[in-house]
Write a structure and sequence with these properties.
Elements (H helix, E strand, L loop, with lengths): L8 H4 L3 H11 L14 E6 L11 H14 L3 E6 L13 H17 L4 E6 L4 H12 L3 E5 L6 E3 L2 E3 L3 H11 L5 H11 L11 H11 L15 H20 L3 H4 L2 H14 L4 H12 L6 H8 L16 H7 L2 H7 L16 H4 L25 E4 L8 E4 L9 E9 L2 H5 L14 E4 L20 H5 L6 E4 L11 E3 L19 E5 L4 E4 L3 H10 L10 H9 L26
Parallel strand pairs: 1-2, 1-3, 3-4, 9-10, 10-11, 11-12
Antiparallel strand pairs: 5-6, 7-8, 8-12, 9-13, 13-14
GO biological process, one term: branched-chain amino acid biosynthetic process
Organism: Amycolatopsis endophytica
InterPro entries: Dihydro-acid_dehy_C (IPR042096), DiOHA_6PGluconate_deHydtase_CS (IPR020558), ILV_EDD_C (IPR056740), ILV_EDD_N (IPR000581), IlvD/EDD_N (IPR037237), Sugar_Degrad_Dehydratases (IPR052352)
């Protein structure tokens, strides 16, 4: 791309008053006139925030990126983006993913940028930045912040999220004291970085790499490893080259790339949240990805990675074993390795010579952790006509074929208020139903699908039960949890019609979830059903509820689907 064709030239190369304004105000930061010589201007979209613990080190990562941009002859300009901290934000970060994506998109488009480096880490920050950048389609490269080091507690590894649920349930069952739990708190998150389990943060980092948007081998590098900062510097250099080559996200984010990512997620035993985020990202670039594609593409893909919550190890071990390139190499017969990456080379070229250094952590296709079909199952049936998902690798084998009577709660808070009640009418066959927790119903589609087990069952030694909801589940969570039921109950889906005592049948082998109630009875219930009363909404929440799509379409806003391009806005001076 010639210097005069760059977007930034319309700002910094302008003659007269407009050019004077753009250059002179930038010089209050100490820039000399030579930086306005037509070199590529690279934005660094930084989701740093002390309210987002997973991303709290990204200012240091940004400095490494800047070194690379300067080194390659570009001008780095860092800017903040909204930051979504999974551990702290209420009611749920998912309520704000689309807002962050919109902010990223508009900030990139409105400013004199020729390319952008996306700095993310926590669960929703990665898909939000990808969605925003893909919508603008300027040259872009992602740098995720990396996972924490393995947690260490009393001689064993513990994993963020996964062991939160496990240790807390042990505490509720009387097996672990409050002092033990407090001790574990200080042992789990012992370094900078995002969750070191294969939760949503690690899953989305790996899928950003699989989509070709991160430098190969980068997703799994621990946040505190010096190689993370060397990688960030390399990404800064590469961002300048992307502008010169005019290599844009639309070259990477093709139909085949999304199909690769779906299969990689299955092999990772990745988060069910990846389904929602991939559907939304595909919608931004006009790729018609559907839930049926997840079922079709993953039928023959085994789980190859032995990481929590489905397995034993953590992201630090995954990196030392060779990381995502090893997984891609193992799946070579299933993937389209002709897909472009941000390196400018295809996966076929990138994977040449890749080796695995620990076959306990990353298995072969011939000797997998779990057989094909153990990733995310897509269910259909009378209770979820538009689909639902279940993470087979994190579920209990004995519950994958199950029939039981429903115990229904209209709000998750109603259940948590009574889950410790010794008289709660549950037994191991009960199907726990939580509704009004979908995109519109909560609102925001929270991670409450793996609600705590009833205490009465825990004390009896029962560790899992079938749970059905229109909610999501943390990628670090586990259990036999049917999620993302669509349409959601607040939109009048069949979940809204379930009553306590109804029989529900789950067949993962048959990919079915059915409400065993006569159609005429359901019609009577539907005639009497009233949508839940919506609270007094304003601002973003009101806009979200009025425009959010259902889970099977990625829960994006209806007016944000499709790329809108990077045209230079009109100036006002």
């Amino acid at each position: 791309m010639s210097t005069s064709d760059r977007r930034s030239a319309d700002w910094f190369g302008a003659e007269g008053r407009n050019g004077f304004i753009h250059r002179s105000w930038m010089r209050n930061q100490g820039f000399g006139p030579e930086v306005f010589d037509g070199r590529p201007v690279i934005g660094i979209a930084n989701s740093w925030s002390e309210l987002t613990p997973c991303n709290a080190h990204l200012r240091d990562v940004a400095e490494a990126v800047k070194r690379g941009v300067w080194e390659a002859g570009g001008l780095p300009l860092e800017f903040p983006t909204m930051s979504l901290g999974e551990p702290l934000m209420r009611p749920t970060t998912m309520l704000f993913r689309n807002l962050m994506a919109m902010e990223v998109e508009e900030t990139i488009r409105a400013n004199p940028l020729d390319g952008v480096v996306l700095l993310s880490g926590c669960d929703k920050t990665t898909p939000a930045q990808l969605m925003g950048a893909a919508s603008v389609d300027l040259p872009a490269i992602m740098v995720t912040g990396g996972p924490m080091l393995n947690g260490k507690f009393r001689g064993r590894d513990i994993g963020s999220g996964t062991d939160v649920w496990r240790l807390h349930e042990e505490h509720r069952a009387g097996k672990l004291s409050a002092a033990d739990l407090t001790e574990a708190e200080g042992c789990m998150s012992r370094s900078r970085g995002h969750c070191m389990t294969m939760g949503t943060a690690s899953t989305m980092a790996c899928l950003a790499e699989a989509l070709g948007m991160q430098l190969p081998g980068s997703a799994a590098i621990p946040a505190v490893d010096s190689r993370r900062y060397a990688l960030a510097q390399a990404a800064g250099r590469r961002a300048v080259e992307l502008v010169e080559e005019d290599l844009r996200p639309s070259r990477m984010l093709t139909r085949a790339a999304f199909e690769n990512a779906v299969m990689v997620n299955a092999a990772l035993g990745g988060s069910t949240n990846a389904v929602v985020h991939l559907l939304a990202l595909a919608g931004r670039v006009g790729v018609a990805l559907t839930l049926d594609d997840f079922e079709r593409l993953t039928r023959d893909i085994p789980v190859l990675v032995d990481l929590m919550p489905s397995g034993r190890f953590l992201m630090e071990d995954f990196y030392y074993a060779g990381g995502l390139p090893v997984v891609l190499g193992e799946l070579a017969d299933h993937l389209d390795l002709g897909q472009m990456t941000v390196t400018g080379a295809t996966w076929k070229d990138v994977l040449d010579g890749v080796q695995c250094w620990n076959r306990e952590v990353i298995r072969t296709v011939d000797e997998p952790v779990q057989e094909a079909g153990a990733g995310t199952a897509v269910l259909r049936g009378s209770l979820c006509p538009d689909g639902a998902v279940l993470k087979v690798s994190a579920a209990s084998p004995g519950l994958l074929e199950h029939r039981g009577r429903a115990l229904v709660f209209d709000r998750v808070e109603d259940y948590t208020a009574v889950c410790d009640d010794p008289d709660l009418p549950v037994d191991p066959s009960t199907v726990l139903v939580i509704r009004n927790a979908g995109p519109r119903g909560y609102p925001g589609f929270p991670e409450v699908g793996n609600v705590p087990m009833p205490r009465v069952l825990l004390e009896a030694g029962v560790e899992d039960m079938v749970r059905v909801s229109d909610a999501r589940m943390s990628g670090t969570g586990y259990g036999t949890c049917v999620l993302h039921v669509a349409p959601e109950s607040a939109a009048g889906g069949p979940l809204a019609l379930v009553r306590t005592g109804d029989e529900i049948e789950l067949s993962v082998a048959g990919r079915k979830l059915d409400l065993l109630v006569a159609p005429e009875e359901l019609e009577r219930r539907r005639a009497a059903w009233q949508p839940p009363e919506r609270p007094g909404e304003r601002g973003w929440q009101r806009l979200y509820v009025e425009h959010v799509l259902q889970a099977d379409r990625g829960a994006d806003l209806d007016f944000l689907t499709g790329s809108s391009g990077h045209g230079t806005p009109r100036h006002s001076h």
